UniProtKB/TrEMBL annotation:
One of its GO terms (cellular component) is plasma membrane. Residues 21-246 form the MacB-like periplasmic core domain. Its main location: membrane. This is MacB-like periplasmic core domain protein. It comes from Candidatus Methanoperedens nitratireducens. It comes from the Archaea. It holds the Pfam family MacB_PCD.
């Protein structure tokens, strides 16, 4: 028989048993849809994290007071301030870091919270005081309107997207006077939407000296709550991080046991978060793939029933000259059809599910969220190929059973 004849026979039998065929296909649809949806949402989460943290720059290092003995002070958990949270960084630390080879810019920052008043409305905001001489060279978040802070700015602020558009009843526009910590400021810039990371969608940025005056916490002059370091080359981040640690330990007269500061490369945080989201996505996809096994069992069951129902047809085909291989191809093509149709429908439903879930996720995150499902062509090709593979494999044993039938016995068979 020609391949086209074999395909026609397979397709005609699938159409003949419509209800059973659709019930068999549903098992594959559920499995493929689950895998596609979970993997695409996982990839979307990864890209969202990469984009958000990437706005901070992979060539940045942060220095914060305090040191966690539990985590060793590095990596994702290194920011936990244990046994030294009250110790602030000083101008001396700033100057020591500037002397480390490979350091390009150093920004002493003052962070805290303060009350912001606009008309009759009042809210608590995150305030970050920065060194206006270097801040522009270190931040990569784009502006929606206005300009960045410049040296010599007084009573000028740059605010986040959400704070400008969503916090108050009326949007905050450029040059609009606002009151923070009882002092009047003018809005000179508004960040573009960033998802809450690099641009600080709900934050206010101002010169460090002014931030000390409005932040509710008492932060003395020449001290900082954190220091941001930009290195000359991204590939040198790990080496420069180690050098900064050594220089600061010598300057602050501490050893690894009494260390009271934490140095963290933002690229390390980015890698660790990406690794976590990727592991979770793969784990969930593996669980979803179990439903494909259930679908495979359904195909195998359907094919065994098909072999039993078509025993006389098999005997007739073999009596007319059909070879064992042709009979086997007949049933393998039929089981492959189940996998193909189930894969196509599963991909369609998987895309719809991922879009719906990511959309619901954006509303849950609120303004500034950027999470969206990423459906790559490679994922779709893999899902379809895998579903066809599952269908064909599920039909191997029933097909072999049909191919091994004796034509005389098959013609005598009565249901």
């Amino acid at each position: 028989m020609k391949a086209l004849d074999i395909f026609s026979l397979s397709l005609s039998h699938v159409k003949k048993s419509k209800m059973r065929s659709w019930l068999t296909i549903i098992g594959i649809v559920i499995g493929v849809a689950a895998v596609v949806a979970i993997i695409s949402i996982g990839q979307g989460m990864q890209e969202s994290v990469q984009a958000s943290l990437g706005s901070l720059g992979a060539d940045l290092i942060t220095v914060t007071p305090g040191f966690s003995r539990a985590t060793g002070g590095g990596g994702f958990g290194g920011g936990f301030r244990a046994g030294g949270a009250g110790i602030n960084l000083t101008d001396k630390d700033l100057n020591v870091i500037k002397q480390v080879p490979g350091v390009l810019y150093v920004n002493g920052m003052v962070s805290g919270r303060s009350d912001m008043v606009l008309g009759t409305e009042k809210t608590s905001v995150s305030v970050s005081g920065v060194d206006t001489a270097v801040w522009r060279s270190m931040i990569t978040t784009k502006l929606e309107a206005g300009r960045y802070l410049q040296p010599g700015d007084s009573n000028a602020v740059v605010i986040g997207y959400s704070l400008a558009h969503d916090t108050f009843l009326q949007p905050i526009t450029l040059n609009r006077p606002i009151t923070i910590g009882g002092k009047s400021f003018k809005v000179v810039g508004i960040f573009a939407q960033s998802g809450g990371f690099g641009g600080g969608d709900n934050s206010v940025y101002m010169p460090a000296d002014y931030a000390r005056d409005v932040i509710t916490e008492n932060i003395s002059r020449n001290t900082f709550t954190s220091i941001m370091v930009k290195v000359i080359d991204q590939s040198l981040v790990n080496q420069i991080t180690a050098d900064v640690v050594q220089k600061l330990m010598a300057s602050r007269h501490v050893n690894p046991r009494t260390r009271d500061f934490t140095v963290t490369a933002l690229a390390t945080i980015q890698q660790q978060i990406s690794s976590i989201t990727q592991t979770i996505s793969l784990f969930l996809a593996a669980i979803a793939a179990v439903s494909l096994l259930v679908g495979a069992v359904g195909i195998a069951n359907t094919m065994f029933m098909s072999v039993m129902e078509r025993t006389r047809q098999i005997g007739l085909l073999k009596a007319l000259g059909a070879t064992d291989n042709e009979v086997m191809k007949l049933f393998l093509m039929e089981s492959g059809l189940f996998g193909f149709v189930g894969g196509v429908l599963g991909i369609i439903f998987g895309i719809l599910i991922s879009v719906i879930i990511s959309s619901v996720g954006l509303r849950t995150i609120g303004p500034g969220g950027e999470m969206s499902a990423v459906v790559s062509p490679q994922l779709l090709i893999f899902a379809l190929a895998f579903s066809v593979f599952v269908g064909v494999i599920s039909g191997v044993v029933p097909a072999r059973t049909a191919a091994k039938m004796n034509p005389v016995d098959a013609l005598r068979f009565e249901q």
